[in-house]
Structures are given as structure tokens and as C-alpha cells.
Amino acid sequence: MTNKILEQVESAHLKKDVPQFHVGDTVDVHTRIVEGEKERIQVFSGTVIMKKGRGINETFTVRRIVNNEGVERIFPLHSPFITKVVAKRGGETRRAKLFYLRDRVGKAVRLVEKQRTKAGDKGEKKADTSEGAGARAAKRELAASAT
Length: 147
What we know:
The chain has 147 residues and is α+β, with helices and mostly antiparallel strands. It has two helices and five strands; from the N terminus they run H-E-E-E-E-E-H. It has helices at 4-11, 122-146, and strands at 26-35, 38-52, 59-66, 69-76, 82-89. Strands 4-3-2-1-5 form a five-stranded antiparallel sheet, with no helix packed on it. The chain is extended, with a radius of gyration of 21 Å. The N and C termini lie far apart (55 Å).
């Protein structure tokens, strides 16, 4: 539980349009870089391996491989230097923190792409998956009885 006064002070600095992405998504983070008088946008592409924090302290970590070396960068979600975050691909994951990707090399780093469904198709999708789960359970029972 946070202090109400703190929330009021922080609310002035929070972004109004927070980008929607999840852990496991492949994202492009557009960062504003200021070098002396010049200003440019630099894009950091990678997989979101972690989101943490709350309010103004909310951060996310993006990991990518550069020259066979893993590079992780932590971005504050509400930073004025982040111009936009574009989710290119959704990754299927069952964990909140994907630290196990640090040990993987090559194609093993890739996550299975999340299947995007429409809001109206959810009921139909559940019926299809329950039939598939029942069929898989029947196959397991047959395999167990055969051995």
C-alpha cells in the first residue's frame, strides 16, 4: 500500500499513454539521445525479460544478442527519454521473469509466438482446447496401459 500524498505527487509525472506490452514480447524501444546540441532517436530491439515496480518507479528490462554477447538494458517506463515502445511480436510465456533465457544460446532463445485471438472467439477457442486436452489425456492413458 502506498501513501496517498506520494501518489498525488507522482501522478503529475506519469505518462498518460502507457505502452501495452508483456513479458516475453519482442519490442522496439525508441530512445531519445541528446549529444551536445544534437538530438536523435535510437532504437533498441529485444525481448522483454522482466517488468517490475509500480508508479513512477516502474521499469522493464529488454535483452538482445549483439556480437554473440547478451546485452540487457533497463528502461524506466515513464521516462521522458523513451519516445515509444512498439511490440513487434508477442511471446508465449508462463513466467513473470525470464532469467532462464540468459543461459540459452542461438535459436533456443526464441519464444513461441503468442496466438492472437479476437474477443468474440474466446468461447469457441476454449471449447476447441478442452477437446484437445481430453484427447491428449486419453492418449496418455492408452500409452500408460500399453507399457
